[in-house]
């Protein structure tokens, strides 16, 4: 089952590069950099394998958080549309207005 239930497998997968993946990948990389700095090692040059590992773990977590986020939002949308379809009297259809009805008449001042 994992992080998302089986009904979430019908959703399209999120993009590989999304805001959660990029953000958590950066957080993982900066964690490795801070660890190097606290241990008085050159931050960029030492522990490159840890930098790659932490950024990859952050990217992976961000991807799966995006999958879970998409599932939650689609579930909320489904419930909202189901409620609207079950209670049509609470959500009446509004008449479509033309642009001329919406805008005020223009009177130039000279």
Please give a structural write-up.
With 110 residues, the protein is mainly α. The protein is built from 3 helices and no strands. The mean pLDDT is 92.
Could you give a short description of this structure?
The protein is mostly helical and about 110 residues long. The protein has helices at about 20-40, 50-85, 100. Helix 1 (about 20-40) runs antiparallel to helix 2 (about 50-85).
Q: Quote the distance from N terminus to C terminus.
A: 72 Å
Report helical residue fraction: 55-70%
Structural class: mainly alpha
Shape: elongated
Quaternary organization:
single chain
Beta fraction: under 5%
Mean pLDDT: 92
Radius of gyration: 25 Å
Q: Low-confidence parts, pLDDT < 50 over ≥5 residues?
A: none
N-to-C SSE series?
HHH
Number of strand segments: 0
Instruction: Please give the count of helices.
Output: 3
What descriptive keywords fit this protein?
single chain, 110 residues, mainly alpha
Write the layout of secondary structure elements.
Blueprint: H1 19-38, H2 48-86, H3 99-102
Helix pairs in contact: 1-2
């Amino acid at each position: 089952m994992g992080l998302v239930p089986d009904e979430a497998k019908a959703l399209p997968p999120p993009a590989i590069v999304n805001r959660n993946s990029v953000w958590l990948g950066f957080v993982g990389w900066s964690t490795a950099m801070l660890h190097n700095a606290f241990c008085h090692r050159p931050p960029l040059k030492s522990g490159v394998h840890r930098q790659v590992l932490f950024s990859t773990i952050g990217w992976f977590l961000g991807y799966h958080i995006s999958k879970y986020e998409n599932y939650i939002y689609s579930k909320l949308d489904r419930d909202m549309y189901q409620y609207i379809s079950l209670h049509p009297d609470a959500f009446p259809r509004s008449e479509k207005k033309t642009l001329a009805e919406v805008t005020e008449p223009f009177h130039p001042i000279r």
